[in-house]
Every structure is written in structure tokens, then in C-alpha cells.
């Protein structure tokens, strides 16, 4: 699509393949708002097993989100969640190949602190560390700790993020950084050790401002939604925006995969989840997404979708059905990767690894580069 090449990070998309990874369930309940979902406690023990299973399955990355306030409801959805930086350092020690991508909120952490955290993760993981950069958008999540920047609106938070990421990139490569920004001031600021290689950077901005920030500064963008045609449009727009700035940005999406032996079984399980929708948790999620109290409890396009109880796009079916849906997704959208969520990671990851992944690898092998490294 563009003449620009991705910065290589030892992942399939370096040469046109698809990056496939796991969204780690670091918060209780995972990504299904239902009383009928499989038990998922969001503990370190569970996530440790997920990372090991992901590596054994041959997946490319595991990523952790960062959350400070849950959605409540009968299931206390996401009320308990792990710290993603400490978690990823630990998971780097129990794995050796899979990339370990953590998340940091730019409104919470000083860039010099995160520059050092990531340089440390770079050593622990031997070059496998990456960072999901999030601005923070749910006021209650940060106001509860006095950390909501009043007077900085949505787009302002991306201006802040732009200064933040500029500071971090400079701290990773320069001996001393002096920077007089609107949000961050560094004065002869030193940061050692340096990462051996700049860590992978990703962001999931879906607004115009967020997508532009991502195309300009990041190695990859998570696009929202699951419709292949809409993803194709968003992917094309992000890549064109990056190309206009002389860069390449990888485009990813996210999908919950409910695998069963037959389509009928998978669909029955999906209906069972929907029947147990946790209304209270749904209302909590809507508050976090910025819905006003007066709108909560009413039916609209958002609640219609949410009644499935899945918090992301999903596919439910046999391995064959999942293969066909994901093949169509990649063929139509031309995205570079997919982050997977499972209702039950303990059974989902191995089944996906054995029955789905080998076919996707074969269908989307990437190009063998001629001549560049002999
Ligand atoms: C895959 C993915 C991961 C995300 N991770 C987090 C996260 O860990 N913490 C958070 O506060 N927001 C997270 N978000 C929200 C995004 O950072 C972003 O704020 C949201 O998509 C809205 O886009 P906007 O900021 O451009 O309006 C995530 C979104 C996606 C799609």
C-alpha cells in the first residue's frame, strides 16, 4: 500500500505476515459481561499460564491493558486488575520468544520513569518489550486518585501524549535531554540504561486526533470494530496518514474467539453468555465510556450490541468457521495483525494454536526478503 517499510521487530508483519497475539485477562471477568461466563479471576497465576500457553502455541505477542477502576455489577466486573508493568516483567522471565507488551497511561506517569521501566523490561525480556500508550479517558478512573488533569480535554490529552512520547524516545537515545514543553519540562535529564533497541510502540486511539497521533509516533495502531470492510477503510486511512508523514504503521484489530467442536455448540454457548448479561456491569462500562446517567438504562445502538455480552467483536464457531472468518478478515481488511481474546484462555489458546493458527500461518506467510540479509 505504501512505499514505506515497517521498522523490524522480529514479528511476522516485518515481512508482510500477520502478527497474532493475546490480550491478557489481567482483570477479573475478561471481556464478557455475563454471569454465565467461565470463571476468570484475572490473577497472576492465570496470566502466567496464558503467557506460557501463548508461547507454546507459537503466538507472537501477549499484551496487558492498564485499568484502575472496574465496572461493578453483580460480577464486580474488572474491579480487580493487575499492574501491567510488574506483570510483564514477570512474564518475560517465564517466556523466551513471545513479545511482552505492557501499557502505561501518559497522564499518570512521568516519561523519565517510564523510559527507565521500559529499558529495564528490555533487559529482562532480552529485547521483547513493547508499550501500549494510552492517554486515559475515563475521568472517574483518575479523579479517584487526584490524577485527572482538569482543563485538558480529549485532544489536549493527545497533545500531552505527543510531548510524553517525544520525551521518552529522546531519553532512550540521547545522553541528556532538555525539553521545555507545555506539559513536561526536562532539564539536563539523564536516563540510563538505554534499551538495546527502541521498544515497540502501539496505541489504540480511535478518534481522528488519536489515530493521527498513532500514525505519527507509533509502530502499530489497534483499530476498533470487527467488520472487515470498515476495518479496511480505517486501516487504509491510518496507513495513508502515516505515509504522508514518511512512515509505516501496522494496523491491528481485536477479536474474541469462542471455539467449540461444532458451530451449533459455539452458538449455544454464546447464547448462554448473552442470557446471563450483567446489566449492572454494562451500566458501569457505559459510564466509563462517557454516557450520561440519563442515558444509562435506555436502549440504543450501543446497548443493542452489548446485549451479546461480548465487549469486543467476536466469532463463535468450529475451528473451520473461525479459520474462514479470520481469513476473510485479513483478506478484506488488509490489516497486519489480530489480538485474540478467549472466554476461557486455558482451553482456547491450545485449541486455537493446534487447529487455527497453522492454517492462518500458511495462508498469510509473508514475503521472504531477497538479498537484504543474505
Ligand atoms: C486494544 C485496545 C487496548 C486498549 N487499552 C487500554 C488500556 O489499557 N487502558 C485504557 O485506559 N484505555 C485503553 N484503550 C482505549 C484506547 O486507548 C482509546 O482511548 C480508545 O480507543 C478511544 O480512542 P481515543 O482516545 O482516540 O478517543 C484500549 C483500546 C483498545 C482498542
Automatic annotation (TrEMBL):
Q: A Pfam family matched by this chain, by name? A: Bac_luciferase
Keywords, ordered alphabetically: Flavoprotein, FMN, Monooxygenase, Oxidoreductase
Q: Which InterPro entries match?
A: Luciferase-like_dom, Luciferase-like_sf, SsuD_RutA_monooxygenase
Alphabetically, which GO biological process terms does the record hold?
alkanesulfonate catabolic process
Q: Which residues form the Luciferase-like domain?
A: 20-330
Q: Which GO terms describe its molecular function?
A: alkanesulfonate monooxygenase activity
Q: What is this protein's name?
A: Luciferase family protein
Amino acid at each position: 500500500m505504501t512505499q514505506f517499510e515497517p521498522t523490524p521487530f522480529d514479528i511476522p508483519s516485518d515481512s508482510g505476515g500477520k502478527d497474532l497475539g493475546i490480550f491478557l485477562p489481567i482483570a477479573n471477568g475478561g471481556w464478557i459481561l455475563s454471569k454465565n461466563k467461565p470463571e476468570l479471576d484475572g490473577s497472576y497465576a492465570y496470566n502466567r499460564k496464558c503467557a506460557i500457553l501463548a508461547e507454546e502455541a507459537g503466538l507472537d505477542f501477549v499484551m496487558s491493558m492498564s485499568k484502575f477502576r472496574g465496572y461493578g455489577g453483580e460480577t464486580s466486573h474488572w474491579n480487580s486488575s493487575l499492574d501491567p508493568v510488574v506483570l510483564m516483567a514477570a512474564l518475560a522471565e517465564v517466556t523466551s520468544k513471545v513479545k511482552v507488551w505492557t501499557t502505561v497511561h501518559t497522564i499518570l506517569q512521568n516519561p523519565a520513569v517510564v523510559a527507565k521501566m521500559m529499558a529495564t523490561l528490555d533487559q529482562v525480556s532480552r529485547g521483547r518489550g513493547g508499550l501500549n500508550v494510552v492517554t486515559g479517558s475515563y475521568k472517574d478512573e483518575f479523579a479517584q486518585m487526584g490524577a485527572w488533569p482538569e482543563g485538558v480535554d480529549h485532544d489536549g490529552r493527545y497533545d500531552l501524549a505527543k510531548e510524553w512520547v517525544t520525551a521518552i524516545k529522546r531519553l532512550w537515545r540521547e545522553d541528556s535531554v532538555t525539553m521545555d514543553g507545555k506539559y513536561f519540562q526536562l532539564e539536563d535529564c539523564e536516563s540510563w540504561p538505554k534499551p538495546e533497541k527502541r521498544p515497540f510502540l502501539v496505541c489504540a486511539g480511535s478518534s481522528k486526533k488519536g489515530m493521527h497521533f498513532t500514525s505519527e509516533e507509533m509502530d502499530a495502531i489497534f483499530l476498533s470494530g470487527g467488520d472487515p470492510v470498515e476495518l479496511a477503510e480505517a486501516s487504509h486511512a491510518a496507513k495513508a496518514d502515516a505515509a504522508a508523514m514518511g512512515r509505516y504503521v501496522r494496523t491491528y484489530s481485536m477479536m474474541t474467539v469462542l471455539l467449540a467442536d461444532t458451530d451449533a455448540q459455539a452458538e449455544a454457548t454464546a447464547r448462554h453468555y448473552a442470557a446471563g448479561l450483567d446489566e449492572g456491569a454494562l451500566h458501569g462500562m457505559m459510564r466509563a465510556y462517557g454516557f450520561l446517567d440519563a442515558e444509562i438504562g435506555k436502549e440504543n445502538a450501543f446497548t443493542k450490541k452489548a446485549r451479546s455480552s461480548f465487549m469486543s467483536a467476536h466469532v463463535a464457531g468450529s475451528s473451520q468457521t473461525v479459520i474462514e472468518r479470520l481469513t476473510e478478515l485479513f483478506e478484506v481488511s488488509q490489516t497486519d495483525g489480530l489480538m485474540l481474546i478467549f472466554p476461557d484462555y486455558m482451553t482456547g489458546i491450545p485449541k486455537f494454536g493446534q487447529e487455527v493458527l497453522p492454517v492462518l500461518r500458511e495462508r498469510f506467510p509473508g514475503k521472504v526478503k531477497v538479498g537484504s540479509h543474505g
